[in-house]
Amino acid sequence: MKFLLVALNAKYIHSNPAIYSLKAYAKAHVREPELEDGRFQIETQEYTINNQPDEILKDIFLRKPDVIGFSCYIWNFSYVLELIRDLPKVLPHAEIWLGGPEVSYDAPEILHREPSVYGVMMGEGEETFSEVVRCYLEHNRGNLNGRSSSFQAIDGTAVRDEEGNVVLNPRKTAVDMNSIPFFYKNLEDFENRIIYYESSRGCPFSCSYCLSSLDKSVRLRDSSLVLKELDVFLENRVPQVKFVDRTFNCSRKHTMEIWRHIIEHDNGVTNFHFEISADLLNEEELELMSHMRPGLIQLEIGVQSTNRSTIKEIRRTMDLERLKERVAKINSFGNIHQHLDLIAGLPGEDYQSFRNSFNEVYEMKPEQLQLGFLKVLKGSYLWEKTGEYGVKFKEKAPYEVLSTRWIDYGGILKLKALEEMLEVYGNSGQFRTTLDKLHKEFETPFDMFEALAEYYDKQGYLRISHSRMARYEVLEEFIYSRVPEKRSLYRDLLVYDLYLRENLKSRPVFAADQEPYKDRVRAFFEEEAAAFRYLEEGYEGYEARQLIKMAHVEVFRDGRAVLFDYKKRDALSHNAAAYEIGVWRK
């Protein structure tokens, strides 16, 4: 017998730890000979939502499972539904189970609506899945008479009885975090993918839009286990480990043990991602962070809104002034990437209020400002308040907000266009020098991105997928339309940003002519090849003609000559080191 656990991820680089955790837990806790000798197989298979449904259907069919379990989230549920409606036509005897947050809060409704689904596992699935596996083992042995009676007795499930009626059982108690086996022993299966790691479950806060707020029993995996498991990633030089803990720093002792360990065992490569509440950080933690290798950790910090009334309405606990102070302190270290989040469409926040929130967070100078839109999650407190708030949202997952009492659909559309500009020009990090200057031409940074979005819309650019070079050219056009008298200044800033990222073979049409400086550039690199003054590690043994291809000298309109060193990059921005090497005149 074969039980196939299926995940549909948003991207290939993502992985789904849930299905691996279910398999590992069952194999560790269901001590039955059929599992050990292979007569009962538990297989895992990951796809992406970019795979063609027909290809996924074909692959599942060829695997010939007897039972199929799908891991369901807001980003993949519509794809799962399409599959489960077609699978019975090609695998009529295979039973289908669903699990995950997207089906945990309306399981009976899903069973009534989707006749092909036999059962739903609700909430944390490790123990529930193990019980389901035991039932299938007993049925295979012929020890159970009632086809459905055994499944009806499993807490944490909603299943059909013999007559097809839905039986809803109470949720299981929370899983002991220390009882879950480490499932990353064979890292070859996760090559070129982000490693997701869980050292705690639950959240101490009660944010109304979040399902984590429903589980306030924060449970920590024992640090002795965590540190051993992190060593596996460090020893294998895994590029990134992303902690999925909802509030990683809710336990100071737990946080400090892990941070001290990754500092002491730093391999110079692995990056660790943590979602934290910055206002909880104390001086001891900040002092430790200041000594970390640049790029060792990155932080995701949820601000969501700076409107005090909104923060109170969504039942969020946050000391905004302390958060700002902590973010500024971390910025001063120059070694930690910070990713700050905002949510548009929250109760009490209109367009102007969101503009204020955006500007306050932008001024905190994060490496990335993530502008998300409210998702009305089934089971959340906000879901229950949609009528009171006048929240209209999409019928299809991910149930994104369309309008509220405070912001209409037109406002949401404007923010959507602004979000695109923020991603392309702000969060890409490719235009930082230019934007640092440009936003001062507007009343606020929000107004700059808003005007850029309006320009894109007017020119019909929002519907076009531009190349990277085209993005620079469009931004140059936009700047000229706003401040034509400063065209030369901004053209140079754009070229500066361009060469910070890479030594381009082709140049933008607005770049200054470099022909008059060819001999001077060649002479500079001949001097460098003879006795390095600027270029150091990685350039030894190369001749001038080779160095010219490996590094770049750009002479700007004011005569400043700048050397871009691509072997020496900033660990956070990934920009090349840049040195002013003099003022050269034609």
UniProtKB/TrEMBL annotation:
Name recorded for this polypeptide: Radical SAM protein
From the UniProt record, which GO molecular function terms apply? Answer: 4 iron, 4 sulfur cluster binding; catalytic activity; cobalamin binding; metal ion binding
Please list the cofactors this protein needs.
[4Fe-4S] cluster
Domain B12-binding intervals: 1-143
According to the record, the segments passing through the membrane are none
- Is Metal-binding one of the keywords? yes
Q: Which Pfam families match?
A: B12-binding (PF02310), DUF4080 (PF13311), Radical_SAM (PF04055)
Gene Ontology CC annotations of this record: cytosol
User: PROSITE patterns recorded for this chain?
Assistant: B12_BINDING, RADICAL_SAM
Residues forming the Radical SAM core domain are 189-408
Q: What keyword terms does UniProt attach to this protein?
A: Iron, Iron-sulfur, Metal-binding, S-adenosyl-L-methionine
